[in-house]
Please model this.
Amino acid sequence: MDPKYKGPMNQDVPPAQPGEVAPLKMGGIEVWPPVVLAPMAGVTNWPFRTLCREQMEQGLGPGHDTEARKPGLFVSEMITARPLVEGRDKTLKLTDFGETESPRSLQLYGVDPYYVGEAVKRLVSEGRVDHIDMNFGCPVKKVTRKGGGSAIPARPLLLRDIVRAAVRNAGEVPVTIKFRMGIDDELLTYEDAGRIGEDEGCAAVALHARTAAQLYDGEADWSAIAHLKDLVKTIPVLGNGDIWEGWDALRMMRQTGCDGVVVGRGCLGRPWLFRDLAAVFEGREPEDPPTFGAIATVMLEHARRLAEWMGEKHSMRAFRRHSTWYTKGFRGSASMRQDLMRVNTFAELEAALRAHDPDEPFPPTAMRVQRGKTAGTQKVSLPEGFLVDRLTNANPPGPDAELLHSGG
Model:
């Protein structure tokens, strides 16, 4: 990669040495490189997951055995347990996988052990999934003030019951859990969450190294990932937070000793980040980012697949926010995005992209520009009295804590 595209924190990061990084093993699944696409609502549907996987395969090259070692793990949007059990069509639609997707990885969200267990039982018995990830990191106020999301690890008995219900009904399908450091700096819960995941038979645990109060603000505290790795001895520990370029992943693993990385906002509008990750873990320098013309080609392919899945009208509206991520930092991108925000048809999208210089290089200043959620901090809302008996209360919150929100 051209030095101008290498962030300052990674200037002195040497390439990976042969054998330095091991494949990620979870149950019967072996993943190389040890990279996981984080589930994001409205983003990680099968068209986007497939694009990311293809970029990873491109970075690995034709000699990689994709059956023996899966090229990354690409997790679905968050699916809520109760409506899945009740068979609601909209929820079932979100469980769609592409014909070539393997392994089929799904993130499940639930607050009640009964519904979580029944949802897992359905997913496994119908052969829908090869891996289930559980979300205990959502920091959205609408969820936490009802006792859901990142509030759940503050009640470790409830967390244990939910995880136990998932693992016991999953059979041979590996279950992993993802959580944050805690509610805020005064109430850190990730140690308990990691131990519970290990004790209850999870295949791995993943830590987003921020608190719920931080939302997505500031820098992730990678030292917490290192601490969790010291505590959890028998299963892999994955790190999440601030993977903006391929080198960040290698640097995180070296600093923390974690067994793999989870990539979220860094790949928004940049599915080729997975190509770069593959190169870095294979001991090579990544290629320079694509020109605008190459990015436009990826955008059109992404939009075409979305249209095939959800119809042109809905897909073009859904694609608008992807357009802002893909074009961020390019010359004249503000006015270009105004045109892209008005797109209603695939032809209009083509025309809007054709109006820009295809040879313009990717702007170095956009390499580490944050994408997606960037709002500041918050005071975490919890139900009244939620923390008074938190160590002894295993009662699940009500069903209104199961709002569909991304995050973690």
In short: The chain is about 35% helix and 15% strand. The first strand starts at residue 24 and ends at 26. The chain has two domains: 3-288+379-401, 292-359.
